[in-house]
Write a structure and sequence with these properties.
418 residues; 6-stranded mixed β-sheet; 4-stranded mixed β-sheet; disordered N terminus; DUF4365 domain-containing protein
């Protein structure tokens, strides 16, 4: 195939990586191609993809190389050197992010859902640089042999760098498919590489299996400073992977809920002045959605499964025709989560959420409560509503406190660490 006939797959691969990020981390926190202007007025991209969430950022560069048909035996040599130059070029492009943040008009972008992503005050406390590469043949297919960088993780510098193939990145974002889970995976991978407790060529998917199922092995290695053998670990854990996927299925209700709340945002409900004084944003508004979504997105997959479990409990107990309330408080987060399955008309849900949320905040002494409501048929049939209630300095009425104690019982915290 002549060079003029070789397709340019770069944009297509970048779009695929951006879609993976939006699906796992939500479009609210992802910007594709964030732009900034250099001092001379030239417009550049700060990164191919930028993900920013609560003091942590992923800066992602995507590099694609179209290579001639090559066998595994032919790979070492010219083609491998060309590939390494592509990787080196991608790593050098991370400097643009720092330049963008320091530029007069850079450092602030907006996601496709209108969420502001602001880095004007400097690099976030936690920053991970990720390079995703795709090697393609001229017809768009992949070579028959697997290519991996000799060092796919560099954690000994000021900013950790992780290098993944497109296939590896896609697989990881299907397994560690929440922002906190993926960041925790990157942190563990970087720590183990830095301490030389795993091979520098360890398969990223095998390292995920270690992350998901090997907590005891990690602790033993850290105590004894011993190398962890990860080769084929994922294959050896396939039965555990299947069990984990089954356990986590209900958790995707939370992901669905986030997207459903966005789809319904802007349909502001008529509410009383009392509700407006307790809630941080107008219930049902886009601003209310943007206020709620970070507190749902901060939950890892296990925590989302626990929320879904409580949600289904409330729906089940409402089948006798009475309202059902419940709450969950995770030790890892300062907020509490309140669930209401209400027999009342939907326009009244916010009244109950506001009163019970305020009461719960006071009896368990938390700064805020993430309040979620649905009807007895569940969110698919009855829809859902959500709002944030902040704990105020003024104590709510004794009636509200008594009602909250009756429904929620004594305070307790749960931990969903791995």
């Amino acid at each position: 195939m002549a060079s003029s006939e070789i397709p340019n797959l770069g944009d297509e691969i970048e779009d695929a990586v951006a879609t993976l990020c939006r699906n796992s981390f939500f479009p609210d926190f992802v910007v594709q191609g964030p732009k900034y202007r250099k001092a001379g007025g030239l417009e550049k991209e700060a990164a191919d993809i930028l993900v920013v969430f609560k003091g942590t950022a992923l800066a992602i560069q995507v590099k694609t190389r179209i290579m001639p048909p090559t066998t595994a035996e032919e790979w070492p040599g010219v083609e491998e050197q060309r590939f390494l130059k592509v990787i080196e070029k991608g790593l050098g492009q991370f400097r643009a992010l720092v330049e963008a943040i320091n530029s007069p008009e850079g450092g602030r972008w907006e996601s496709s859902r209108g969420t502001p992503l602001d880095l004007r005050e400097g690099l976030p406390p936690r920053l991970f640089l990720i390079l995703v590469y795709a090697l393609k043949l001229p017809d768009g297919s992949e070579p028959e042999f697997k290519v991996r960088c000799s060092k796919s993780c560099s954690a000994d510098g000021p900013i950790p760098i992780h290098i993944f193939s497109l296939t590896e990145f896609g697989t990881l974002l299907r397994m560690a498919d929440t922002f906190p889970d993926f960041v925790d995976y990157l942190q563990l991978r970087g720590d183990l590489q830095e301490q030389k407790l795993i091979s520098k060529t360890a398969d990223p998917i095998d390292v995920w299996a270690l992350f998901a199922f090997g907590a005891d092995r990690v602790r033993t290695a850290l105590q004894g400073n011993t190398l962890i053998e990860t080769d084929r670990l994922h294959s050896e854990c396939l039965s555990e992977v299947e069990k984990l996927e089954e356990v986590e299925k209900p958790s995707y209700l939370v992901d669905w809920l986030i997207n459903e709340l966005f789809a319904g945002s802007g349909r502001t409900l008529p509410v009383s002045d009392n509700i407006r004084s307790n809630a941080t944003e107008e219930p049902g508004s886009l601003a209310a959605y943007q206020r709620v979504v970070p507190f749902l997105s901060q939950l890892n997959r296990r925590q989302r499964a626990r929320l879904a479990e409580e949600f289904f409990i409330r729906i089940g107990r409402s089948q006798d025709g009475r309202d059902s309330f419940g709450s969950v408080k995770f030790k890892e987060h300062e907020e509490a989560y309140l669930f209401l399955c209400s027999m009342e008309p939907k326009k009244e849900w916010h009244v109950s959420l506001a009163n019970l949320g305020l009461g719960l905040a006071h009896i368990i002494n938390v700064p805020r409560v993430v309040c979620i409501a649905t009807g007895p048929q569940g969110p698919l049939e009855d829809g859902c509503a959500a709002m944030i209630i902040e704990r105020t300095d003024s104590k709510p009425s004794d009636k509200i406190i008594a009602e909250a104690r009756r429904w929620f019982g004594p305070p307790k915290e749960e931990s969903n660490e791995r």
